[in-house]
Design a protein that fits this description.
Helix content is 44%, strand content 16%. The chain is an alpha/beta fold and 644 residues long. The longest helix is centred in the N-terminal third of the chain and has 20 residues.
């Protein structure tokens, strides 16, 4: 097998090599001729009819994409879920070459048919794929460069592929970004068409992004039950689809459904100002695509039939008060000394132009703290823009951060795009998982921070920018510096104030935290956990921290139903299994403990002795002792009451 070569592309060598092995397993040979076996006209018509919804919503996006790459020896292709071409647009001078390798409607471009190629490999890998020149398995296709992105339905199933194929000499690395954005546009159109009789909310932390590809979209039944969300919606909500299915509009966005209906009964409803379940504030616009009968039935089931203006005003004020309560540093004060120290530190630097680095394990609430810092700062009325450096593909993060100018992409005719840094101008830029930022971009970011100027891709003009910077990571950045994965000069530019959020197992405010989560998730203060469950919570190590605890309590609320006390029978089996496997102590008890057991000491005395010996071994450090024994700091203090 030859060794495929290419410029700096989206697809890793491993993906290409794996695809080549699959191609060989299909019985294909590199020198095999191209397969000229298009479907008959009647079969192609049937295929288009079977994919009519996809075809209808994809064609406008394809035409827009084609206008951006016209006269560049390329063509735009749409296939079904099996890689059979159902529609194409292309330059006349390239169509003749394309027909030689069967790039025409009715021809299958699965890996089984054509070997490694962007369309077939994107379907096999279920991810955007770029295949360039001799990365193609068949030698007949080596003159091509192809960028393909799968198109998924609201359940994540691949229903088609959007592809740009052209002469490999016209390759441009940003073509893939255009394809991915166009595929996302098609997905959003399909999403809106799928949920016709529903409440569909378009939302984003920036009002100007509502109606763009950056917006989140979520649909709910007329009664407010969650139905589905698009990719950006799932990302902003921060919960998996399975967890969201137990939610409602009110539990996710902190606004009673009756208040939403009231808002859209006014003559000129404006944008909604909502607070999501995680405390992040967003703007929203809802589409109430409901029949009158359903609309009236929903109103009567969700609120009193005759709600006075005064009652409506009270409900609106309560929703606004809850949004404010969830958005600032005060909401995070729950009595834990470690967290209090963190809040005191960040409060001292608010508005002082000092970058803040938030350290902590996954799920400890780093983004929630960043949002609270912004909301309490002098920049609170300006944008808060969050970028997860680990979730954006390496080929897109540069354009995401810095934006691109008109003409930056091959044949581009649009006005370009504003990058995240400029979007945050005047406000706060939050770079989550900064330790995962590609090394090649770290120097550019450092230059922006030092010069306070941004140069979009394809532009020779620098734009002044003024942002407050907050970063977060669960990595040890010094270790990544030692491994050559993170720039030392950037590290010292980012760590003006470094704070560390304690993991849940080390916090002393567990009972308060549980109460706050229950109140938020249930939209009431009626629920509480039993003493037995609270004791189990103190014994658990919480590897997923608050994300794990929140999901656990959300599930328990559903299981509890009308019961106001959450007890053992409402807990999921995997949590109970984890508790059973937890052993105290984890260390060798030592001869002193053995003597205590032999003398008839009770379990409490044995545990206390083991804790005291571990404390001695760790120089009196309670946190280190708790980690070694696999318990919380609160457990240490409870087992040894006289400990200072």
């Amino acid at each position: 097998m030859h060794s495929p070569t290419a410029p700096d592309l989206n697809s890793s060598p491993l993906i290409i090599e794996t695809s080549h092995r699959r191609s060989l397993d299909y019985g294909l040979q590199p020198e095999s001729p191209a397969d000229f076996s298009p479907l008959a006209r009647c079969e192609l018509s049937l295929l288009i009819e079977q994919n009519r919804l996809l075809h209808t919503h994809a064609v406008p996006a394809m035409e827009t994409l084609y206008q951006q790459i016209v006269n560049t020896h390329n063509m735009v292709i749409l296939t079904d879920a099996n890689g059979v071409i159902v529609h194409s647009l292309g330059d006349d001078d390239f169509l003749e070459k394309a027909n030689r390798v069967a790039l025409q409607p009715g021809v299958a471009w699965s890996e089984a048919s054509k070997g490694t190629n962007a369309i077939g490999t994107a379907i096999a890998e279920r991810s955007p794929t770029l295949v360039h020149a001799d990365q193609h398995y068949l030698a007949a296709n080596h003159f091509l460069t192809c960028s393909a992105a799968p198109i998924a339905d609201h359940l994540g199933n691949v229903i088609g592929v959007l592809d740009v194929s052209g002469d490999q000499r016209s390759f441009h690395k940003h073509t893939m970004a255009l394809v991915r954005m166009s595929a996302l546009m098609i997905e959003n159109q399909l999403f809106s068409a799928t949920f016709e009789d529903s409440i569909t909310l378009h939302f984003h932390t920036r009002s100007e992004f509502i109606g763009t590809l950056m917006e989140g979209i979520a649909s709910f039944s007329p009664g407010g039950r969650f139905l589905a969300a698009n990719r950006n919606g799932l990302f902003q909500l921060g919960l998996p689809f399975t967890a969201l299915r137990s939610h409602t509009f009110s539990s996710l966005f902190g606004l009673p459904l009756s208040a939403l209906y009231d808002h859209y009964r006014t003559a000129a409803p404006g944008l909604l100002n909502l607070c999501m379940h995680n405390g992040v504030r967003v703007y929203g616009r809802a589409q109430m695509r409901l029949s009158n009968s359903v609309f009236q039935q929903s109103l009567s089931s969700d609120r009193p039939a005759l709600a006075s203006p005064a009652t409506q005003a009270v409900a609106a004020n309560q929703a606004a008060a809850q949004a404010r309560r969830l958005s600032g540093l005060r909401y995070l004060r729950t009595g834990d000394p470690q967290l209090e120290l963190v809040i005191d530190k960040v409060t001292r630097v608010l508005g002082r132009d000092i970058p803040i680095m938030i350290m902590g394990e996954t799920g400890t609430g780093k983004e929630l703290l960043a949002q609270a810092i912004h909301n309490d700062s002098p920049r609170a009325m300006s944008p808060f823009v969050a970028v997860n450096c680990a979730s954006i593909p390496e080929t897109l993060i540069e354009s995401e951060l810095f934006g691109y100018e008109d003409g930056a992409f091959t044949g581009a005719r649009k006005k370009g795009a504003v990058g995240k840094i400029l979007q945050a101008n005047g406000g706060t830029l939050f770079l989550d998982e900064i330790g995962d930022m590609p090394f090649s971009l770290q120097a550019r970011l450092l230059r922006v921070l030092q010069e306070r100027m941004v140069t979009p891709l394809g532009s020779d003009k620098s734009i002044p920018v003024n942002v407050e910077l907050i970063c977060a990571t669960n990595h040890n950045l010094r270790e990544r510096i030692a491994k050559g994965l993170f720039r030392e000069d950037l590290y010292y530019r980012l760590n003006g104030l470094v704070v560390k959020l304690p993991p849940l197992r080390e916090r002393t405010d567990l009972e308060t935290v549980v109460g706050k989560i229950l109140a938020t998730e249930s939209n009431s203060g009626r629920y509480h956990v039993s003493e037995e469950i609270l004791n189990l919570f103190h014994r658990h190590r919480w590897p997923g921290n608050f994300r794990q605890l929140t999901n656990l309590l959300r599930t328990a609320l559903v299981m509890a139903g009308d019961e106001h006390e959450i007890s053992l029978r409402h807990m999921p089996d995997d949590f109970l299994d984890d508790i059973e496997q937890a052993q105290i102590p984890h260390q060798n008890p030592g001869p002193g403990t053995e003597r205590m057991i032999a003398s008839g000491a009770n379990l409490e005395e044995v545990e206390q002795n083991a804790i005291l010996r571990s404390l001695e071994a760790h120089g009196g450090n309670v946190s280190a002792t708790a980690r070694a024994l696999g318990v919380s700091r609160n457990t240490i203090y409870r087992k040894v009451p006289n400990l200072k």
